[in-house]
Write a structure and sequence with these properties.
Elements: E1 2-9, E2 15-18, H1 20-30, E3 34-40, E4 46-52, H2 56-69, H3 84-93, E5 96-102, E6 105-106, E7 112-118, E8 124-133
Antiparallel strand pairs: 1-8, 2-7, 3-5, 3-8, 4-7, 5-6
Length: 134
């Protein structure tokens, strides 16, 4: 088993960063041929998701849709820090994703990538990649 720690600085309040190439590099360093990769972020206002990578408008549309569903500035939020919207978005996206490793590669669809999602930026975020052989 191998654990890799990464950080990414976000510049916007809400942003999605493709981290697929980082996960692939981590996997290459292990020489694991069969197993799983768990990608996890230890933040309550960030998340990990898998979605389309071919058209950047997908990410733009997702950010816009979640902003409409959970507006950043909403007068009825009670949480004193003012970031309830970010907690809601994080809950929908989840803090982790698990990927299958087969023949030394992570299995993703043709148009899929793994994204680290920021919902309360700008912030420096940490994420971990755990490669488990088996």
């Amino acid at each position: 088993m191998s654990l890799f720690k990464h950080q990414h600085q976000f510049s916007d309040i809400v942003q999605m960063e493709d981290i697929t190439s980082i996960i692939k590099k981590d996997l290459q360093m292990t020489n694991v041929q069969e197993g799983i990769a768990v990608i996890y972020t230890p933040h309550t206002t960030a998340g990990i998701t898998i979605n389309e990578n071919a058209d950047p408008d997908v990410v733009t549309d997702m950010i816009g849709g979640f902003e409409r569903a959970f507006p950043t500035n909403h007068s009825e939020y009670l949480h004193f820090e003012g970031n309830s919207h970010a907690h809601m978005k994080s809950t929908i996206f989840k803090a982790s994703q698990t990927l299958i490793i087969s023949q030394g590669e992570i299995i993703l669809g043709t148009w899929q990538s793994v994204y680290l999602c920021e919902f309360d930026g700008p912030r420096l975020r940490t994420f971990y990649v755990k490669i488990i052989e088996g």
